[in-house]
Specification:
Blueprint (H helix, E strand, L loop, with lengths): L13 H15 L4 H13 L22 E8 L2 E8 L2 H14 L4 H6 L3 H5 L2 H4 L2 H24 L3
Antiparallel strand pairs: 1-2
């Protein structure tokens, strides 16, 4: 039984696991980290537009070297995340996280850690400040999921 069959369980959601697997498989296509960095930068450059009116302190994420803004909207039983950064590589890292966690159920988000980050060895290839910022982004996504569950009485 998957978490989508029983929303009260905290088993990893199949769709989140599949999204993480897709990212790991994509990273395996590249021969070296120069190509992987370029892919991440391209993801950031190709990200959907982020409204200028959302670039406020209300949505600003602290703990990142670059400026990062993240907006969360409840859409039915799922959380939709929109985010951007003033740094192309950070914007790309954001897009990886959004591929995994946006438009997912809060319980599924909390039940499924970002294992793909270790599998693709991102922490080992980012500067310590970028790695800390990536961790801060994951924590923000998870915190919004906790808040949604509390608001829903779960």
């Amino acid at each position: 039984m998957s978490a989508s069959d029983n929303p009260g369980t905290l088993a990893p959601a199949d769709e989140i696991v599949a999204a993480q697997r897709d990212i790991v498989d994509t990273f395996k296509l590249f021969e070296d980290w120069t190509e992987r960095y370029q892919y991440i930068i391209d993801l950031g450059r190709e990200a959907p537009p982020f409204p200028e009116e959302w670039k406020t302190d209300k949505y600003k994420l602290h703990g990142c070297q670059s400026q990062v803004w993240i907006v969360t909207e409840q859409r039915g039983d799922r959380l939709h995340y929109a985010a951007t950064s003033d740094s192309a590589i950070v914007a790309g890292l954001i897009q990886l996280l959004l591929q995994v966690y946006s438009d997912r159920r809060p319980a599924d988000i909390l039940a499924t850690p970002p294992d793909f980050l270790k599998e693709v060895q991102l922490a080992e290839h980012l500067s310590p400040t970028r790695s800390n910022g990536l961790h801060a982004m994951v924590q923000q996504i998870r915190q919004h999921a906790v808040q949604a569950m509390v608001a829903a009485g779960g």
